[in-house]
Design goal:
single chain, mainly beta, 3-stranded antiparallel beta sheet, about 5% helix
């Protein structure tokens, strides 16, 4: 049974469907002006949704009433919003866009367009995210550039990363009145023992320090005549938790790197892929 009415005014709670909805309360405690709909509910164009696709489906306005001026948006929310995902689908929020920009924050402060390009006003130097990455990849060295730590505003300090043909790590310090350099415990699972090198610099006097041997825990030293050792040390090693570098390869750009795990968009990349494993780039034993 249906009713055709010109206007309907509900002073209390409008309920569509069955059941009790705690959010709008019930009986004498029901909230005036509240609405509960069991769903599904469609707003807007009648045929926009060919089947039940959600509890609430909102489409563009298609109203032939001469007093209606259809808006250019289907939904406008004023006030804070919150999304709580569940396991109904594999995505909490899914956006399909053909407008040019899929997301725009504060009139261009940050945005993501239909093709996945992104822009952030702070720290981008006026470039998009892909442009920033492209510039970084093409630089002959990888710099960091900060405000000068002592001269302050108006001056800059620029350093570049140390580079070499290996995935290297280092450990440095000073040894006083000892004969063994204790390596970080994590190095047992991090570095190739057969890639370790050590540089020593005596402090105060020549001590004829020699490296007797090394393992994955210590560097064993010996000095002339058994005199107390006082030296700076610098220990280098190559990581073993990731594959060695393929230092030279044929290609037009960095995306031609032979190991496919480094290519953009790879799902679950494995940087210790056994197909690209091999001995360390630096071998010292």
């Amino acid at each position: 049974m249906s009713f055709n009415l010109d206007d309907v005014q509900v002073g209390g709670t409008l309920r569509v469907g069955t059941g009790v909805c705690p959010a709008v309360k019930d009986g004498d405690e029901g909230i005036n002006g509240a609405v509960y709909a069991e769903g599904p509910v469609v707003f807007g164009t009648q045929l926009a949704f060919p089947q039940e696709q959600a509890t609430l489906m909102v489409a563009r306005t298609e109203n032939k009433d001469p007093d209606c001026e259809p808006a250019d948006r289907s939904l406008w929310v004023k006030g804070n919003s919150r999304f709580e995902g569940d396991d109904g689908t594999g995505k909490t929020l899914e956006i399909t866009s053909s407008a040019g920009k899929a997301i725009d924050i504060n009139q261009g402060t940050s945005w993501i367009n239909d093709s996945g390009e992104a822009y952030f006003e702070i720290g981008s130097g006026g470039m998009t995210l892909s442009q920033r990455f492209e510039v970084a990849d093409q630089k002959p060295a990888k710099p960091f550039d900060i405000q000068h730590p002592t001269k302050g505003e108006g001056y800059r300090l620029r350093y570049v990363s140390l580079e070499g043909p290996e995935n290297g790590v280092y450990y440095r310090g000073r040894l006083k009145r000892e004969k063994e350099i204790y390596l970080p415990n994590c190095w047992k699972g991090l570095v190739h023992t057969n890639s370790i090198t050590v540089q020593l610099q005596p402090v105060g006097a020549h001590q004829d320090i020699v490296i007797k041997r090394w393992d994955d825990e210590k560097i064993y030293l010996q000095s002339m005549g058994g005199m107390p050792i006082d030296c700076f040390y610098h220990v280098y090693a190559e990581r073993k938790d990731i594959n060695p570098l393929i230092i030279e390869y044929a290609g037009k750009d960095c995306f031609d790197y032979p190991d496919p795990n480094y290519k953009p968009g790879v799902a679950n990349p494995r940087y210790d892929d056994p197909d690209f494993a091999g001995p360390p780039n630096t071998i010292t034993m």
